[in-house]
Amino acid sequence: MLTILDMLNHYLGFFNVNTRWKGRVYSLLALVGDFYLLYLATQFFKNAAYLRGSSIVLAFLVILYFAILNVIYYFTNKTVKWDISPKIEKYLGTQEVKDNSRRNQRTFIPANGIYNPKDVLPASIISDEDMQAELDLVAQQLQANGLMQKDFGGLSEAEQLNYLTNEPIIYANHPGTALPYSHLQAERGGLALYGGVNEMFAKRLGRIATVGLMPVSEALKENELFIATAVLQGGLGHVRGRAGLTEESKPYSLHVEIAYKRK
């Protein structure tokens, strides 16, 4: 059974398989293997090997308990009161110890310069399938050049769980990866965002839809607009699981802020 699980894990590693789907497969395999243990126990009892048979029955019950918990979690997305997994995790000490030196704190420096916060507004950006493909390509280029951190901002497991109290997911590149190069370009009465690892390889990544609460077409009538920050988020992340953190992947997206100046 362990060999089958190892082979399955190896082959699934070639594909971008959702973690919850993997959990369902492993849970069903655990149930099959567990009932094989029950079969072995009955054979030992038939041969009067009562001590070995009883030990295997005990192992069967323990594995059955956790297998049922996994089935409930992965197939229904629910938890039960008699789940002792969090207590086991606590006593095993699987959570990382916080570093008192706060080495996980980082300084974020925008690639497009520094603006007065009072002159900056959040913007919404929309991307079609082609733009999303370009955004995914930019993410790959950032990773290939070592420009995208994948350590969850240096946060420990406990700190990630605390962050997930108010947020649905924390990404491996938390708090985000600033595009090394980005600029706004006027087109069809609006603005398009181009960005990438440098100006030579900049791609059209999306169109600005709103600046603050105003449609971009209205904002352009009275203001000059500049890109303040363009931060890439997405990809591999952690969400709250039944007994801690579990992996989940989301499409990459851009979080943009626009600086404005009255004409």
Descriptive keywords:
7 helices; single chain; 27% strand; transmembrane helix; 9 strands; membrane; 9-stranded antiparallel sheet; alpha+beta; transmembrane; 2 domains; 263 residues; elongated; DUF6681
Question: What does this protein look like?
Answer:
This protein has 263 residues and is an alpha+beta fold. The chain has 2 domains: 18-92; 120-262, no CATH class. Helix content is 40%, strand content 27%. It has helices spanning 2-12, 19-46, 50-76, 85-92, 129-144, 157-163, 216-222; strands at 120-126, 170-171, 177-178, 181-187, 190-196, 203-211, 214-215, 223-240, 245-262. Strands 1, 2, 3, 4, 5, 6, 7, 8 and 9 form a 9-stranded antiparallel β-sheet that branches. Helix 2 runs antiparallel to helix 3. The termini are far apart.
Tell me the distance between the termini. 71 Å
Q: Give the radius of gyration.
A: 25 Å
Distinct helical segment count: 7
Low-confidence stretches: 10-17, 94-108
Q: Structural class given helices, strands, pairing?
A: alpha+beta
Overall mean confidence score, pLDDT:
80
Helix fraction, binned, reads: 25-40%
Please write the string of helix (H) and strand (E) elements.
HHHHEHHEEEEEEHEE
Strand residue percentage:
25-35%
Overall number of structural domains: 2
What spatial form do the alpha-carbon principal axes imply?
Answer: elongated
Number of strands: 9
Largest sheet report = 9 strands, antiparallel
